[in-house]
Amino acid sequence: MIEDVVSHLAEPTEPGGAATLSCGRQGSPWHVLWTRSHCERLVGDQLAAKGFEVFLPSVSAWSALGGVRRRSGGPLFPGYLFLHHAVDKESFLEVRKARGLVRILGERWDRLGVVPEAEIEAIRRVLEAGAPVLPYAFLREGQRMRITRGALKDLEGILVRARPTKGLLVLSVELLRRSVAVEVDCTSVEAVASPLPPSRREGAPLRALLQLRS
């Protein structure tokens, strides 16, 4: 088994936190595992030991306990981690055996919810770049933008402008209805044009429309 452990911190510092575990499976879908409180790592370790690929994005943040400031790590999406596997009935039952797992999101073993590869890749790239990242209220609609340069070049999300030259690029996982945000330079983003809706593809002027996430 190949194990690739990648640390992701809320502040760019030395590695030491969260993980992508086990062997990759090109073309397999990403599913969401819902765990009991504080059992994300427990579930991930059990499944990785069985050869499943799991992704547990984590961050660390400063906290004060007893008047002492310390940095501690935790999941970016508390109670959830991601499974990269083409699930059949046998593997579904094997995953369900993991201690601490509540369920795999979806209707049943052959109708599981799927997270688009692009959403996983966006989260992974932000964390691997060491960019400060924070939870954000789930956001579905807004001006969709693309970063044009730097470590996060070509990453897309919804821009929430905080200051004239700085803003927050919000990345969402639709299946979880959760979002995270990363600060970006507003001079390094451009609007993403979406295709014209079917009713306007013929006989209408071709013009770029800002994409609204639906």
Question: What profile does the largest beta sheet have?
Answer: 6 strands, antiparallel
CATH 4th-level superfamily of the largest domain: NusG, N-terminal domain
What is the annotated CATH architecture of the largest domain? Answer: 2-Layer Sandwich
How far is the N terminus from the C terminus?
39 Å
Q: Class of the largest domain, according to the CATH hierarchy?
A: Alpha Beta
Low-confidence stretches: 1-18, 196-214
Order of helices and strands: EEHEEEEHEHEEEEEEEE
Q: Quaternary arrangement of the chains shown? A: single chain
Name the shape in a single word. Answer: globular
Question: Which properties best describe this structure?
Answer:
alpha+beta, SH3 type barrels, Alpha-Beta Plaits, 3 helices, 2 domains
